[in-house]
């Protein structure tokens, strides 16, 4: 990573600590109990957070990536930010948003966004990975639509089995931060 990316990564880490990280008693979407909660949308829906996320993830994409996609709602601002940054880099990459339930009208589609050629390589984006099941639903919907998925990129890995799960499914996984990074920075502040 160049100095600009490192500086951007540090700014993003500080935003996660300031706006997204809370300690207390929480029930996660996976059903697990946790003594901390991370609301990525508190960062990704801020202009500076979206820009940092877009720039950092754009540099993590493989050359063969034809689109980025994610499960609504947590991934919506992320895929949009990366797509906008890609346009500024003169390498426009479309964003796809995957519904949890099929649309109840019109085409009844699970996937919103431009249609791509069958076999197109898509990278799935996620805000926070715990067990890995949320992003895996997006992967399954994309594969069922005739696309290929090579990698999942997350803003934060909660280090609760998601990375191992993706590996068991034959998928690459990268995250910008681990929960340990955020908790260490939180203690520093």
TrEMBL record:
Pathway participation: Pyrimidine metabolism; UMP biosynthesis via de novo pathway; UMP from orotate: step 1/2
Positions with a binding annotation for 5-phospho-alpha-D-ribose 1-diphosphate: 99-100, 103, 105, 126-134
Enzyme class: transferase
Named cofactor requirement(s): Mg(2+)
Gene3D superfamilies on file: 3.40.50.2020
PANTHER family according to UniProt: OROTATE PHOSPHORIBOSYLTRANSFERASE, URIDINE 5'-MONOPHOSPHATE SYNTHASE
Function: Catalyzes the transfer of a ribosyl phosphate group from 5-phosphoribose 1-diphosphate to orotate, leading to the formation of orotidine monophosphate (OMP).
NCBIfam families on file: pyrE (TIGR00336)
Stated name of the protein: Orotate phosphoribosyltransferase
Species per Swiss-Prot/TrEMBL record: Cyanobacterium stanieri LEGE 03274
Name of the encoding gene: pyrE
């Amino acid at each position: 990573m160049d100095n600009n990316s490192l500086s951007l990564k540090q700014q993003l880490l500080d935003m996660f600590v300031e706006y997204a990280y809370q300690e207390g008693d929480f029930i996660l979407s996976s059903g697990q109990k946790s003594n901390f909660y991370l609301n990525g949308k508190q960062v990704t829906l801020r202009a500076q957070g979206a820009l940092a996320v877009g720039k950092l993830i754009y540099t993590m994409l493989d050359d063969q990536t034809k689109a980025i996609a994610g499960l609504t709602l947590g991934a919506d601002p992320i895929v949009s930010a990366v797509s906008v940054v890609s346009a500024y880099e003169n390498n426009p990459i479309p964003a796809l948003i995957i519904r949890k339930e099929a649309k109840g009208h019109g085409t009844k589609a699970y996937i919103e966004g431009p249609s791509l050629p069958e076999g197109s390589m898509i990278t799935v984006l996620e805000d926070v990975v715990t067990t890995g099941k949320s992003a895996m639903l997006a992967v399954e919907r994309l594969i069922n639509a005739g696309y290929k998925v090579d990698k999942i990129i997350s803003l934060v890995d909660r280090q609760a089995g998601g990375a191992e799960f993706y590996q068991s499914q034959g998928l690459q996984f990268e995250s910008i931060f681990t929960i340990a990074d955020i908790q260490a920075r939180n203690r520093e502040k």
